[in-house]
Amino acid sequence: MSVAIEGTIAPGFEAVGAAFAAAFEGNPTMGAGLHIRLEGEPVVDLWGGVADERNGRRWTVDTPSVVFSCTKGLMSILAARLVQEGRLAYQLPASRYWPEFAAEGKSEATVTDLLSHRAGLSGPRQDLSFEDLLDWDRMVGILANQYPLWCPGTAYAYHAITHGWLVGELVRRVTGQSPGQYFRSLITEPLGVEAWVGLPASEVGRPAHLQVAPSITALWADEAKKPGPNWPYRAMTMGGALPADLVTTDGGFNDPRLQAAEVPGAGGIATARALGTIWSATVTPTEGVRLLESEVVGIATQTQSAGAPCFTAEPPFSRWGMGFQLDSEARRYLGEGSFGHDGAGGQVGFADPGSRVGFGFVTNWMMGPEDKRATSIIDALRQALR
Predict the structure, then answer these.
(1) pLDDT at 15 exceeding the cut of 70
(2) Domain map of the chain by residue range?
(3) Which residues contact 73 (CB under 8 A, 6 or more apart)?
(4) What does the pLDDT look like over 362-386, one tens digit per residue?
(5) 259 φ, ψ to 5°?
(6) How far apart are CA 21 and CA 46, in angstroms?
(7) Fold held by 5-385
(8) Residue 57 burial by CB count (10 A; 0-12/13-18/19+): exposed, middle or buried?
C-alpha cells in the first residue's frame, strides 16, 4: 500500500519528491518529513506516513521528532556564532571558559578539540544511570573530572553523546544561558520554527514515536559481544545508561524525561521544516535571519578530524570541522563545501553555501547501515540543482 504524501514541490524538484516517496517502500509504519530551501525560499516541503504506530496517529507538517546527532550540528552553529561575535575562540584552551575542565591533564585541550571529537572523552570510564543523564551538573562534572582516554588533540573518536555536554557547557559558561535557552533565543524564536534542546512541558506527547529496524538491533548486539573495554559501545550506551539502540518502546529517547532534559549530543527535537530552515539560515538570509557570516563558515568547516579514529572501526570514515560533519564517503551531501550533521537512524540536516541550500529530513523509522533514504533524496536534489 502506497503512503499518501502531502505538501508542496516547486517545479523542477519533482524527482526529489519521488525519492522521498520511495523512502517509505517496505516501511509500513514509518513517518517522515522533508524540507528544503533554496536561497532562503522553500522548494520542497513534504510529509507522510505514521507518527505513532501504537495508535495510528498520522505524520503532519508540524510533527516533531528526536533528531539524535543532528543536535550536534545545531550546537556547532551556536559555537560558531559565539566565535563570530568574539565571545569564544576555537584555538584557546576550553579551560579558559570552563576552569574545572583543566583537571586530570586536560588543561591544554582546546575548544577545537571538544568540537571535533578530539577531547579524549568519547565515553565514560564509570558506569552511569539513566537518572545521571537527566542531571546537567552531574554530567559536566563527571566529564570535567575524567582522565581522558587519549591525550586530547592527538587523535579522534566519535563522542556520540558526550559531545553535547562538552560543547553545551562551553555555551553555558560563555552566555550564562543553558544550551536550550540560547538555542531558543538565537535561533528558533527569530526564525519562528519548532525545535528544542529540552522539550517544554507544553509539547509533551507531540514528538513522533521512534521505532528501530532489526538491522540496528543486530548491529549493536554484535558490538556488545566484543571484548572490553569497548569504548565505541560505551560511548553510545553511556556506560549502561542508554540502550544501545538508543530507544525502546517506552525508554531511551522515547522517554519523556529524556526528551525534556537538555542532552545536546543527541536529544534535540525538531520538525523537518525547522531543521531545513535553520540550516538555510547559516548560508543565506532566511525568514529575515542570517545566523552565520561566510567568513566564520569558512573557518568552521576546515577539516579537523578525518580518516581512521583511534579505536578500531570499519571505513568509510566521516570528516569533521568545528563540530560540523563535512561531505565525505560516509555521508554525502551536495559537495565539498556542504556542512551539517546526520543523526542515528536516518535523520539529516545540512547546508550548502555554493547553492544556498538548507536541508532537513526527519524520520521515526530508524535504520542501520543499509539506509539509503536520505542519500537518495540528496542525490535527486543534486541532479535537480544541475
Answers:
(1) yes
(2) 5-385
(3) 279, 323, 324, 325, 339, 340, 341, 349, 350
(4) 999 999 999 999 999 999 999 999 9
(5) -65, -35
(6) 9
(7) Beta-lactamase (3.40.710)
(8) middle
